[in-house]
Amino acid sequence: MIKQIQNLNFNVETKGTGESIIFIHGLGGSLNIWNSQVNATSRFFQTTAYDLRGAGRTELSVPEYSIEVFVEDLKNLMNSEGIKEAHLVSHSMGTLIAQHFAVDYPDRVKSLTLVGGLLEIPEAGKKGLYDRSNLVRENGMDTVADAVIEGGTSSYSKHANAATIGLVRDLLQRNNPEGYAAACRALANGRAINHGQVQVPVLLIVGDEDRVTPLPMAKKLLQGFPNARLEVIENCGHWTTVEAPDAVNRALLSFLYSL
Q: Partner of 135 at 20 to 30 A CA spacing, among 17, 20, 33, 252?
């Protein structure tokens, strides 16, 4: 459903009743990457999934985005939906948004689930994101979609889960180039938080073949958060929620029920 929030039209989908879970997708994604997780959790919780600005069916707003802008969008969404506090479930770039939100608005977060959790991008990665941003703006999403899939999915998924690979490719190609480019720059400029400030329980989920946010990064996050646990999913890359949906669902529900 399209909802106007602070003069911008956001695509928002809400299901179920109970404690609130908000799903935050990452770069190149949309709320549809959470389809399996929403179906699993909305039987017991109220779920809210939304498209970030410039992604999916949410209105494009350019020229510049930032992690801080995405954080304020999330706050405004919660205010609009009457959500006082929520469990935040996030993927990739979305995990940086969720981390910053937990620091800026700690009284509004009940827990964090970071799927493919991010630290600050290293300098080489920042340059790569700016180069990708420029390439997409000039030549469109087709120029990067296959490379993103090659680096972001597991060898198992490529050979045994070809239908999912095709869906991810279609998802990437449907991105608005200007919105994707702006999100690339926002991610490149994103800064790490002080993880010790996050007191809520944290679940870290990572694929064993994730080359975007690899296991050593997850272990560093595990050491940084005061109250965190780590779940490693076999035969899985960075697009964890669609490559291994059942495993993600089991880990997520087990974590939420333990709180």
A: 33
Q: pLDDT at position 64, please?
A: 87
| Separation of alpha carbons 175 and 62, rounded Å | 14
Q: Which two tokens stand for residue 19?
A: 């404690």
Inter-residue long-range contacts of 95-100, CB under 8 Å, 24+ positions, other chains counted: 95/24, 95/26, 96/67, 96/187, 96/190, 97/24, 97/67, 97/70, 97/71, 98/24, 99/193, 99/195, 99/198, 100/67, 100/68, 100/71, 100/190, 100/193
Residue 35, pLDDT above cutoff 90: yes
Q: Where are the domains of the chain?
A: 2-258
Query: What is the third-level CATH fold of 2-258?
Result: Rossmann fold (3.40.50)
**What is the rounded distance in angstroms from the CA atom of residue 151 to the CA atom of residue 125?**
13
pLDDT of residue 155: 95
Orientation of helix 177-189 relative to helix 123-139, angle to 10°: 170
**Residues constituting the chain:** 259
The per-residue pLDDT for 259 is: 96
Where does the pLDDT of residue 25 fall: very low under 50, low under 70, confident under 90, or very high at 90 and above? very high
Q: What is the mean pLDDT of residues 162-187?
A: 96
List all residues 6 or more positions away from 198 whose beta carbon is below 8 Å from its beta carbon. 99, 102, 103, 106, 112, 225, 226
Q: Provide the sign of the torsion angle of the four alpha carbons 217, 170, 88, 2, taken in this order.
A: positive
